[in-house]
Design brief:
single chain; alpha/beta; Spore Coat Polysaccharide Biosynthesis Protein SpsA, Chain A; 9-stranded mixed beta sheet; two-stranded antiparallel sheet; 9 helices; 22% strand
């Protein structure tokens, strides 16, 4: 599967140095390269994007990407979330679709990203403000883990809500439901991203600390695409060890 060719598509990788749960996680060693370099190279390898940039508030991360021959942009302002950081960076760039690749997701691959971009050519594309990925959770430990953001959708796969809590809550133990983890990779229409940048954070986003809730609170439509990608987002030192093991194997 190839990416749509009549839309200009770029990838932006927001990268903070001072992550609250695992400071400096993007500069940790992962098989001889930093986590952020691994993620940048994985995005380039897909060949789905006209350009790939790391957008950061950190001179350390900026210098790391430049030293590797990559493209990086320094943020001019302080930002609460990755979407704000990307919006500032793309404000004056002529682009149709902006893909937000999380800096702590070094195992992204082409097929899932291509599926994500494909929705902008489906029959309901005119209803889609942004699209993102979800994958089934298989263990109770993962379902209960607040570091795994869960998502529920309507019958057309548009997101209804995201939460760190297990959703749906299964009161009826006979019900046949699947819990889905939200993978923090987004494809935005540029206008949706710029709208987000101008709109203040509301209560639900502030409570959960999940930025995509802001889109729902302001009535934007998020199309969710199911993937079998078993990615490891690096939120904790334990996640980093899992990533190192996966890379070795």
């Amino acid at each position: 599967m190839s990416a749509p060719t009549s839309l200009k598509v770029i990838a932006m990788i927001p990268a903070r140095y001072e992550a609250s749960r695992f400071p400096a996680k993007l500069m940790q060693d992962l098989g001889g390269k930093t986590v952020i370099t691994r993620t940048y190279e994985a995005a380039l390898k897909t060949k789905l994007f006209q350009e790939v940039y790391v957008v950061t508030d950190s001179e350390i991360i900026f210098n790391e990407i430049i030293a590797q021959g990559g493209k990086a942009i320094m943020s001019k302002k302080s930002h609460e979330c990755g979407s704000d950081r990307i919006a500032e960076a793309v404000k004056d760039i002529d682009v149709d679709i902006v893909v937000n690749v999380q800096g702590d997701e070094p195992f992204i691959e082409k097929e899932s990203l291509a599926d994500l971009l494909e929705v902008f050519y489906e029959k309901d594309a005119h209803h889609i403000d942004l699209a993102s990925l979800k994958t089934a959770l298989e263990t109770e430990e993962d379902i209960l883990n607040p570091n795994h953001v869960k998502v529920i959708t309507n019958k057309n796969d548009f997101a209804l809500y995201f939460s760190r809590s297990p959703i749906p809550f299964v009161r009826n133990k006979q019900a046949n439901v699947t819990h889905y983890k939200h993978i923090g990779i987004y494809a935005f229409r540029k206008q949706a991203l710029m709208d987000f940048y101008r709109l203040p954070m509301l209560g639900l986003e502030n409570a959960e600390k999940i930025e995509c809730i802001r889109y729902l609170e302001y009535g934007k439509n998020i199309k969710m695409v199911e993937t079998n990608l078993k990615t490891i987002g690096i939120d904790t030192p334990e996640d980093l060890e899992k990533a190192r093991k996966l890379l070795r194997n």
